[in-house]
Structure formats: structure tokens, C-alpha cells
Amino acid sequence: MSESGAIGVIAVTERGRSAADRLQSAWPDRVRTFTGERAGEELRSAFAECGAVVAFLAVGAAVRALAPVLGDKHADPPVVCVDEALQHAVAVLGGHHGGNALAAEVAGVLGAAPVITTASDAASAAPLDSYGADLGFTVADTAPLAPVGAALLSGRPVRLEYDQVWPLPPLAPGASAQTPPESAAALLRVTDCAVQRSGDQQVPTVTYHPPSLVVGVGSARGAAAEEIGGLIDTALAEAGLAPQSVRTLATVDVKADEEGILRAAEERGWQVRVLPAAELAEVEVPNPSDVVRAEIGTPSVAEAAALRAAGQDGRRAELAVAKRKSANATAAVARLHPRGRLALVGLGPGARDLTAPRALAELHRASVVVGLDQYLDQVRDLLRRGTRVVASGLGQEEERARTAVAEAQQGAAVALIGSGDAGVYAMASPALDFAGDDIDVVGVPGITAAVAAAHRLGAPLGHDHAYISLSNLHTPWEAIERRLHAAAEGDFTVCFYNPRSRRRAWQLPEALRILGEHRPPDTPVGYVRNAARDDERAVVTTLEAMLNGGAEDVDMYTVVLVGSSASRTVAGRFVTPRGYTWNSAAETVP
Ligand code: SAH
């Protein structure tokens, strides 16, 4: 007979049984254990009799045992398998019918990681326990992680609340700031305010404390750590602020070795930041003191240090708690405003395994991805659900750069993507032209077309080389021509980007002619169309052949490399020797 609410737990080993006990104590009314010797039979019994199954068994063993009895996926109970080492809770069957949520709950109880393989969830599972960890978030109470994770995985509406916008990755789309409180099955909060007692909350709530507060302190020489710490704790508590949100304790340089201050910080796990009195004297504060000014050269220590440390790197900051005093100490608290984050991400030439893992991490990290349609199509399957995609067409570079910067200025985590490297004839420079110091910028290097092509051609970049774009849409031809002459005279290997389009057909032959004035007709030339893409085509030829009509199949998807006078063709490969005295130097090493 089926007990729809029961979770059948199959445990046939010692470790399995002790883990089963933990599930039993977490869910005393729901767990029914199956501990007979024959795992397969136990599993089939649980599958027939319970509403859900957790098996401390290998996935393969479970699949073999259940294969003959599998029925309709809507009617079968979900099955989760957990490995002996209790590392993974794998949703094996019925993922969308409670299995994914059950895997998350089991993982929560056992400290394992949920393994979800249903397509729509796999890419979106920003793990709740480490959400915002790279920004310094801490989880106020870990107990609600499992039920909130389960609500997210089963697609129930989850409400997101925050008091400031942080540059966070997207959560599953079920979690939204627009979810009305009355229909939310769970709540995620980002706040530097202290958590209410858990009984006050209607639904399971995970609270993240962001590192948004800086405590400023001053003290008389010899003030006790207990007094200083007590003053800070009361200041935070009375303002309803979470101590976990304090990122630093700041003070003036003459207090750098003040025992009481150092110990109060250490006991609370806070770093100490020491600022010169002259720097503090520049900070405008509500409660300056002439006595303090006369003594140490700044009219404020606590307020000024808190504001100054919170406002480092040009961040906006304000006082959250004005100066409070005890007999021998002062304390104040400043709150900083988080900054948006702009990642400039080059995806490499095409093939996914030539995209840096860090670039992929940035795509997951971003809640807004901006780029040209064709590059977005290249990575759309990688984006987490809930990521906002802003696509634009060719030729809209400036608009694309402005959009990305504006989104970051709103506080979001933005990735601006492009092919090759983002800094090579690409979006990084227009974006940084618009970006102020009010956003954080990170760059991820990508393999640029010339480098990808070089490996198809041989080793053409073994010595000095120059990149020249032949597009005269935004650069006057005279400037390009000057550089061509300089590169020709300098005997560089030259890489031509944007070599030829339907409307710009004469530039490449002209560029080759200029180089030909300075190097022999048999100089190797290589070009690669769609390097590292499906229809890649690589050709090694000579300058002479190129000048006699060989440039016809070069287009805007092609990069062209012209050798220096030292470059040669070796076994069909384009090689530029290292030159200098490389070989003889190696021989003379004693
Ligand atoms: N940021 C890109 C360059 C953009 S400019 C990079 O670092 O590679 C666009 C030009 O780059 C094209 O006209 C072409 O000359 C070259 N290019 C880009 N990707 C290429 C590829 N996969 N194969 C050949 N050439 C490519």
C-alpha cells in the first residue's frame, strides 16, 4: 500500500544507516527506513509503498533495480541517490515532480551537494549557500537554506528583498523582487539589518548579510577592549544593524597599536584599517570636536574614519550611526553603497574549448549580458536562467558600450561580450571611454583572431609583429597607410584585421603592395577564415601569389598574416624564426 507522504530511505550499509538516522531525526514523521540486506528488493518495496525514495546506493545499482518497475513519471515517486561518502544527493527520477527539491533537502540535512540534471534547472542553480560569497556575503542562519533551496528548485514563487542593489548573479527565475509577499513560498533577503527572531517569519527565509558597514572608533590611551567593544555592540544593536555586515573597523594612525581597539576588533573577527589624521581631517562630519583637533590634528576620529574607510575607491558612503561616546571611547558606523560590476569578456575565436573558463564564470556571474546577436547566440545555452540579455546589431558599438556601462551604474553585474579578445578592435575601449570610477571593471583575456590563426598556419608570430586593421570606416586611410609603411620598413610580421569587405575591396591589395616594396615576393602569407569555427579554412601562400589575385577569398571573417623578410615556409608551414642569436646562444651555454 502506498503512503504518499512517506519518504522511504534505503540503507544497507553501516554508513547508510547512520545517515538514515540523521534524516529520521530531521523528519521524524515522514521517514520509513528499509534496512534489509538485499538493496534491490528494499528499493523496489520503497518505490511501491512510499511517496518519495532516498537511497544510500550507487545511481547505477538503483537504476538496475528500478528499471523493471518504472511506470509513469507523473505517478512514480521521485528517487534521490546519495553516495557512501555523503557528498552528493543525486535527483535520479522525478526531478520535476519533487525529486530536485528532495535532493536539495536531503543535501541540506547531510551537508552534501544536490546534483540536479534536469535541463532547465542545471544551468540556473546558483547555489544558495554561496550566493554572493565572492562579494563577502554571509548567511545569517544556515537552517533555512534547505527549505528555501527546495522551494526554488520546485519552481515555487520566492520573494527577493534587498535594501541595496548588489552586483549579484541571477537566481532561478522563480525568485524575484516582484513576487508579492503574500504569495511567496520562501524569502531571500539581502540586508545589513539584524535578523528578526525566526518565529516572526511566516515562510522559510534565508538572510544574507552583505559587507556594507564600517565601524569607526577612537579611544583614550589604555581604554579597555570591553568598554570599546561594548560601545560598538550597543551602537549596532540599537540601530538594528547586523555585526556580520561589518567589513572593517577603522581608526586613526596614532591608535594603530591601541591594545583595546585591536582586541575588540579581533574578538569580533574584523580587520583594522588605520588612516592618517591628515586624511581624516578632510572628511566632513556632523559632530566635529575642537578638543580632538587640538590633540591629534583631526576634528573627528570615529565618524571620519568610518566614512573614509567606507568611501574608499570612490565609493559613496554615509553615516548610519552618528558618534556615540562612553567614558573613554567613541564609535560611529558608516554604510557604503555597493558598486555595479562590468566584466569585459572576450569569448575567443569560436570553439568553446578556446574560451577561458574564467570567461564562462563571468557569464554565470552576470545578471545582464550585453553583446552582438551573433556572439550571444554562441553562448546563450551557457547563461543562467534569469539572466537578462541585451542584444544589438552590427555597427552599434557605441550604443552597446553605453548600455553596458549604464546597467553597471545601476548596480548590476554586467558582462559585455565579444569575440576574440575584448580589448583588441573590440568593446573594451569604447566601454572604458564611458565608464567612470563609480563601477568596478574586470577584464577576461580572450584568444584573439591572429593568435588563433597563427596556430593553424604554423609559427608566424615567432618574432616582432604588428596588428593593423584595414578598416578605414573610423580611421582615415592616410593614418593606416603611414602605419603600413612603418611596419614595412620595420620588417614586422603583420596581422591584418578587418581585411576586406564587399565595400572595401582595394585596401588589402594596396596594403600588400606597400609591404611588397620591402620584402621578397616569396615572403610567406597565411590567412585563416573563421579560425576555430566549424567552417575554418587556412591557406599558406606567398606575397606574390596574393598580389596576383590570391586575395579574392579573403573577407571580414578572415585574418591575414604577412611574414617579415626572415619568415619562411617549412614543410608547408609558415614560420618566423626567433632570430637574434637564439640558436648560437643556446650552443654557447657552458
Ligand atoms: N576582438 C576580435 C577582433 C574583432 S575585429 C579578436 O580579438 O579577434 C573583427 C575582425 O577580426 C574580423 O574582420 C577578422 O579580421 C578578425 N576575426 C575575428 N574572429 C576571427 C576568426 N575566428 N577567424 C578569422 N578572423 C577573425
UniProtKB/TrEMBL annotation:
This is ATP-binding protein. Residues 43-121 form the Cobalamin synthesis G N-terminal domain. One of its GO terms (biological process) is cobalamin biosynthetic process. Pfam families: CbiG_C, CbiG_N, TP_methylase. Residues 341-545 form the Tetrapyrrole methylase domain. InterPro entries: 4pyrrol_Mease, 4pyrrol_Methylase_sf, 4pyrrole_Mease_sub1, 4pyrrole_Mease_sub2, CbiG_N, Cbl_synth_CobJ/CibH_dom, CobE/GbiG_C, CobE/GbiG_C_sf. Pathway: Cofactor biosynthesis; adenosylcobalamin biosynthesis. Keywords: ATP-binding, Cobalamin biosynthesis, Methyltransferase, Nucleotide-binding, S-adenosyl-L-methionine, Transferase. Gene3D superfamilies: 3.40.50.11220, Cobalt-precorrin-4 Transmethylase, Domain 1, CobE/GbiG C-terminal domain, Methyltransferase, Cobalt-precorrin-4 Transmethylase, Domain 2. Residues 213-334 form the CobE/GbiG C-terminal domain. GO terms for molecular function: ATP binding; methyltransferase activity.
